[in-house]
Specification:
alpha+beta, 7-stranded mixed beta sheet, about 45% helix
């Protein structure tokens, strides 16, 4: 009988230890959840990935599908460098170079650039275009008028008024995926992301007030 009692006591002890171990394991479950949400969890998708897919407009078809000038490539580079690799913005980039604004745009943080497509420059009378390109002050004013010192999402364009780096206001209007800048320049490819700016490619050059 004494031996039987010892066996029963030992059984109870083993059961208690097992239950205790189960309790500890259950407690570690929350620790596992924390770990899973932290070190073990898959990293969240980069914001740039969703931003790259958010572009809109018929002119987006002119953007390369891969490489540095593509939407994915532009998202990884600062805005002036991104423009230099995009064939639709080659004239715009050459004017940025001429005005010595490459570093200014690349080093800026959280910008919006209304970037004229190549065809935008061809719409101006040649004498007007030459007058801008050959006058350093006019060129600087014109290009900085295309830049706003913060990122602007599409929802803010309908309508909106924004202070440009030049100092004058840029006005926007429209809805959905159809937007106009200053009443005459249409967005042909919008919400293009670069590492430091949101770009709206437009079909006309914006002329600052008073020029």
């Amino acid at each position: 009988m004494r031996i039987a009692r010892i066996v029963v006591v030992l059984s109870w002890a083993v059961t208690a230890i097992a239950l205790s171990a189960c309790g500890n394991h259950a407690g570690s479950g929350s620790g596992s959840s924390i770990l899973a949400a932290g070190a073990v969890a898959k990293p969240a998708p980069a914001m740039g990935n969703s931003a790259v897919r958010a572009h809109f407009g018929s002119g987006c078809s002119a953007i390369p599908t891969s490489g540095p000038g593509s939407f994915q490539g532009m998202a990884a580079e600062p805005v002036a460098t991104a423009a230099s690799h995009n064939p639709a913005l080659s004239t715009f980039y050459s004017t940025i170079q001429k005005a010595d604004l490459v570093d200014t745009l690349n080093n800026g943080q959280g910008l919006t650039v209304f970037a004229p497509a190549n065809a935008a420059f061809q719409q101006l009378p040649q004498t007007t275009l030459d007058g801008i390109l050959t006058d350093g002050t006019k060129l600087d004013k014109t290009l900085t008028y295309h830049v706003v010192g913060r990122r602007i999402g599409p929802a803010e364009l309908a309508p909106g008024n924004f202070d440009s780096l030049e100092g004058a206001t840029v006005s926007t209007s429209g809805s959905g995926v159809s937007f106009t800048i200053n009443g005459y320049a249409s967005v042909v490819c919008g919400n293009v992301q670069t590492a430091n700016a949101t770009v709206y490619i437009i079909d006309s050059l914006l002329i600052p007030p008073g020029m």
